[in-house]
TrEMBL record:
<dbReference type="InterPro" id="IPR006597">
    <property type="entry name" value="Sel1-like"/>
</dbReference>
<dbReference type="Pfam" id="PF18555">
    <property type="entry name" value="MobL"/>
</dbReference>
<dbReference type="InterPro" id="IPR041073">
    <property type="entry name" value="MobL"/>
</dbReference>
<dbReference type="InterPro" id="IPR048102">
    <property type="entry name" value="MobP3"/>
</dbReference>
<dbReference type="Pfam" id="PF08238">
    <property type="entry name" value="Sel1"/>
</dbReference>
<feature type="region of interest" description="Disordered">
    <location>
        <begin position="454"/>
        <end position="474"/>
    </location>
</feature>
<feature type="compositionally biased region" description="Basic and acidic residues">
    <location>
        <begin position="990"/>
        <end position="1000"/>
    </location>
</feature>
<feature type="compositionally biased region" description="Low complexity">
    <location>
        <begin position="464"/>
        <end position="474"/>
    </location>
</feature>
<dbReference type="InterPro" id="IPR050767">
    <property type="entry name" value="Sel1_AlgK"/>
</dbReference>
<dbReference type="InterPro" id="IPR011990">
    <property type="entry name" value="TPR-like_helical_dom_sf"/>
</dbReference>
<feature type="compositionally biased region" description="Basic residues">
    <location>
        <begin position="977"/>
        <end position="989"/>
    </location>
</feature>
<protein>
    <submittedName>
        <fullName>Relaxase MobL</fullName>
    </submittedName>
</protein>
<feature type="region of interest" description="Disordered">
    <location>
        <begin position="966"/>
        <end position="1000"/>
    </location>
</feature>
Length: 1000
């Protein structure tokens, strides 16, 4: 019989989330639950059986099911299972009878043979036509062919059941799914007792159908549905018409399935059911990771490997009988080829001589010797490999070789027939691609080299096509050599939303702006890039990155990692690192398919690019599409090793296994991958190589290597990121003579590249104009352009907050607004500098005095700490600010001497302002001393005048008193004379004295 002995169909789906359209990859929850229910209860399912059922009476549900089957087919009573049940109505016998009843009603006799049946019902015919109209692929099935040849009731039932499986795998619209789910519920023989009688099982035995349906409907990750199908005769002969055989097989191969799905075995959950159908008895196997967010994926290679694993177990004895003669044929083929080359040396084989093999071997030898690296087939250039293959094909026409190759192909086809349609017989060059014939290619290479001694090999020097330039008297033509070895202290990162060169111009490669709902993984990825970069809708892009990643797109996993690792409300470091690790593994898998796998493995082992090509030769050219994939994979691995991966926790991975998953930052490995990517055609890698040199990550003590940095930037001068990097170096004189005019030209080339470069370049030019390095032409316009881009970002980077704060403080491109400036300083990271600016600005708007004092105090403490612990990074400005705070008592008590100390420090660091402050303070000191002296002199003068005044006053007072006394004395004399005259007069008149009158 033609066709494979084991067929494995595998597909995956996930449960559609709110707002997501149902497709063949996105099931609504009801459809997923319906699929599980169908697998567990369809007509031919082998129902669960447990030994302990022998001691338990048949359940009410079992008895009801048996009665239903007897009503449909009374002659079921003739079966041996019914007789056993009739004698002992245990749950075990009931289960066996139900399984047989399903087969009996379905179309088998009590002995297991297909029985004659009545014609298909009208309902069956209508439903079949409905299915075929919706899913035309059903017409290609053997079940449908049998039905068309003989439209009996059992053939109709068989084609409907198989059509349902084909349909569920291919249906892409809700209407088709609904039709099929209705059939699940209405088909003949279905059990309607909520899953109490079913055939679903797990590694632990019978499954809880209701619980499994609920779990799958609620799962948020990918779910894999596989169908392992055998021929009827193989299943009967090898015992795979029973549930226990499949159950044991799945238990044995669970670790292999988990490995293929890249899921820890402990996290793999699976359910299965066996359908003992007429044509192809098969087992349904549904698997998913218990980690809810897991996006498991089964590659084509993994499917082939699973087929091989299951075939090796199921057909072990048969295949062994084929392996032995095939191996004998292979050995004979190799021996005969060696003999042929020996005859060639003596010209003793006319058939060989007629092929002109000596001339061809000589040409091959010359081609091999011209190649650098190891002289084995795998590492030879593509053209040389083609010469080897052509020679093998010509040799395969030699009659004796052709006969042995035919014998070998016969056995090889027999082995392939177990799990795929055998390939047509291949010429020797194609046949030798198989691992067990591969040595024949190297045999040809060895004999070619033996014709005469090979000269010593010199590693091929690769001439760089890099554009060169000259700056400050040196050339960058040699700047693309192997990176030096050094240590890297901290990662150099690019954020998801800004500096992502990997997508520059690649996002333009979309064929349509319409969503590719049924598109490939690559189409979904390109659409995500389109949304992100062209439409500026990053949140919408995330959905499509997810859809692409679920289909196995590795770059989509990398973009998701960058998204979840960025700062902001969506940051999820654990999930981001999970995607980053998944991307790393995917890129490494991609590189395994490269013809340059040995060079890449050497790089992975820690060798530099130069060391790798010295051992294995420079990268070979590959098929265009493959080379693009390989070079990008190497580029992304360079990005990953630039930042590293820190895994804190992954569901299903034990804590002691986590260290093996960590990826340390390794700038040298990153540089090797970047250079491989560049040499393989991915020119954008030059930018990241330049960054590593620019930031000193490849030099001792983190010393920047501006020459090599500039050389790599010049290697991709059409890239605006490289233009921007060169502009910065030229502006600041890093490896170049400073030249603001040249820098401006390069900056202006970047103004329309993307938002990131437009904003950065606009700001850089505006700053040069503001600092009077360039004529003041469009400064405000440029500042405005930068501000408009930055203000659209909900979560700007720290340095952007600082720039916007300064722009609002001074009205650069935006209206002057100190409140907004304060807001941006507060949003930035708290540093001594931002605390100082906050204190300044809040003073200007008469802010809260306590808060102002606190900001200045925090700034002072931070700056003093930096002066003590990081003296090499201390600046003149920092010293000036410390002096200012001590001088005016900002955040501390005023302290003139300490203020003078910090102004002196700032002046020593080159601050003209600090020197001026010191001069002013000295002048103030001198003026104060002069004023003090003048004041003292005035005080002395005032004191002298005061003494004279007091003396004069005393003399005057004395004179006044004496005069008064004199006056009083004179007055007293006059009064006595008057009184004597008055007394004489009174006596003369006969009057008495005053005192006499008083006594009287």
């Amino acid at each position: 019989m033609d066709g494979a002995r084991l067929i494995l169909n595998a597909r995956y789906f996930h449960i559609a989330q709110t707002g997501e359209k149902a497709t063949k990859y996105a099931f609504v929850a009801e459809a997923a639950a319906g699929l599980v229910n169908y697998i567990a209860t369809r007509e031919s399912v082998i129902y669960n059986y447990d030994e302990h059922y022998k001691e338990v009476s048949a359940t009410e549900a079992q008895r009801e099911a048996i009665n239903q089957f007897l009503e449909v087919s009374p002659d079921l009573e003739l079966s041996r299972e019914f007789k056993a049940y009739d004698e002992d109505r245990s749950a075990a016998n009931a289960s066996a009878l139900i399984s047989r009843a399903a087969q009996y009603v379905y179309g088998m006799t009590a002995e297991g043979d297909v029985k004659p049946s009545a014609p298909a019902t009208r309902a069956q015919r209508e439903r079949i036509q409905e299915f075929v109209n919706k899913v035309p692929a059903i017409r290609q099935t053997p079940e449908y062919s049998d039905y068309k040849a003989s439209p009996t009731r059992e053939n109709a039932s068989e084609v409907l059941s198989h059509a349902l499986e084909v349909g569920l795998a291919n249906a892409a619209d809700p209407e088709t799914l609904e039709i099929m789910l209705n059939y699940i519920a209405e088909r003949p023989g279905v059990v309607h007792n909520e899953g109490k009688v079913h055939g679903l099982f797990t590694v632990n035995g019978a499954a809880d159908l209701a619980a499994e349906k609920e779990a799958i409907a609620a799962h948020t990750g990918n779910i894999y549905s596989m169908v392992f199908s055998l021929r009827r005769e193989d299943a009967d002969r090898l015992g795979y018409d029973r549930q226990d055989a499949w159950s044991q097989l799945f238990a044995i191969k669970a670790d292999k399935i988990a490995q293929a799905l890249r899921v820890p075995t402990s996290k793999l959950h699976w359910v299965a059911a066996v359908h003992n159908t007429k044509h192809h008895p098969h087992a349904h196997f549904i698997a998913y990771s218990t980690e809810q967010k897991s996006r498991i994926y089964l590659s084509e290679d993994a499917i082939e490997q699973l087929k091989s694993e299951f075939v090796s177990e199921i057909f072990a004895e048969e295949r062994h009988q084929i392996f032995t003669p095939r191996e004998e044929a292979r050995q004979q083929l190799e021996d005969r080829l060696e003999t042929l080359f020996t005859q060639l040396e003596h010209n003793s084989n006319a058939a060989v001589t007629d092929l002109l093999l000596p001339e061809k071997l000589a040409a091959l030898r010359k081609s091999i010797e011209s190649a650098s690296g190891r002289h084995v087939y795998k590492y030879l250039p593509k053209d040389t490999k083609a010469m080897v293959d052509k020679l093998l094909d010509e040799i395969s026409e030699v009659p004796e070789i052709k006969e042995l190759l035919t014998e070998y192909n016969k056995y090889q086809q027999q082995l392939e027939a177990y799990y795929k349609t055998p390939d047509e017989p291949k010429p020797l060059s194609a046949a030798t691609t198989r691992s067990n014939l591969y040595p024949l290619k190297n045999l040809v290479v060895q004999y070619a080299l033996q014709f005469e001694p090979s000269p010593p090999l010199t590693p091929k020097t690769e001439n760089s096509s890099t554009k060169t330039g000259s700056t400050s008297g040196f050339s960058y033509s040699d700047a693309l050599d192997e990176p030096e070895n050094a240590q890297m202290n901290e990662p150099f990162k690019a954020t998801w939303k800004t500096n992502d060169i990997s997508s520059w111009r690649d996002n333009m490669k979309v064929q349509s702006s319409s969503p590719p709902y049924d598109g490939t993984a690559e189409e979904k990825y390109r659409y995500a890039q389109y949304l992100r970069y062209d439409e500026k809708c990053p949140q919408d892009a995330i959905l499509w990155y997810n859809l692409a990643e679920q289909l196995g797109h590795t770059e989509a996993a990398y973009q998701l990692a960058q998204y979840y690792l960025q700062k902001g409300e969506d940051q999820d470091v654990e999930l981001g690192n999970y995607y980053l690790l998944k991307a790393k593994l995917g890129f490494e898998d991609t590189l395994l398919d490269s013809v340059n796998a040995m060079q890449l493995q050497a790089i992975s082992a820690g060798n530099t690019y130069a060391a790798a090509i010295a051992d294995f030769g420079p990268p070979e050219a590959e098929e265009k599409k493959q080379q693009h994939a390989i070079s990008r994979a190497a580029y992304f691995l360079g990005r990953i090793y630039t930042t590293g991966i820190e895994i804190a926790n992954i569901d299903g991975i034990e804590s002691e296994d986590l260290p093996a998953l960590q990826v340390a930052t390794d700038p040298h490995k990153a540089a090797a991958y970047f250079e491989f990517a560049y040499r393989s055609g991915y020119k954008h890698a030059a930018y990241y190589l330049g960054n590593l040199y620019f930031h000193g990550k490849l030099s001792p003590a983190d010393k920047p290597d501006y020459e090599r940095a500039a050389g790599w930037y010049m290697a991709d001068t059409e890239n605006p990121y490289c233009q921007f990097a060169l502009a910065k170096m030229i502006e600041h004189g890093q490896g170049f003579t400073p030249n603001v005019e040249t820098a401006e030209i390069l900056y202006r080339k970047c103004l329309n590249a993307n938002d990131y470069l437009t904003a950065e370049s606009s700001y850089a030019i505006a700053q040069m104009q503001n600092n009077e390095q360039l004529p003041l032409t469009d400064m405000q316009k440029l500042y405005k352009t930068a501000a408009e881009i930055w203000l659209k970002d909900d979560h700007p980077e720290n340095h952007i907050h600082l720039r916007l704060a300064r722009m609002y403080e001074y009205g650069l491109g935006v209206p002057e607004d100190l409140s907004l400036a304060i807001d941006h300083y507060k949003a930035a990271l708290k540093t001594p500098e931002t605390e100082y600016k906050l204190g300044q600005l809040m003073q200007r708007i008469d802010g809260d005095a306590t808060e102002i004092y606190a900001h200045y105090a925090a700034a002072r403490v931070g700056m003093l700490y930096a002066e003590e612990h990081r003296p090499t990074s201390a600046t003149a400005q920092q010293a000036v600010r410390l002096a200012t705070m001590y001088r005016y008592g900002l955040g501390c008590d005023a302290d003139h001497e300490t203020a003078v100390h910090w102004y002196t420090v700032a002046a020593e660091r080159g601050s003209i302002y600090a020197q001026q402050r010191l001069e002013v303070m000295e002048m103030q000191r001198i003026r104060q001393e002069q004023r003090a002296a003048e004041y003292a002199e005035k005080q002395q003068q005032q004191q002298n005048l005061s003494f004279a005044a007091r003396l004069l006053n005393a003399i005057g007072n004395a004179l006044c008193r004496q005069t008064l006394r004199d006056q009083q004395s004179a007055t007293a004399t006059t009064d006595r004379k008057q009184r004597r005259m008055q007394r004489r007069l009174k006596r003369a008149l006969g009057q008495k004295e005053d005192y006499e009158q008083i006594f009287q």
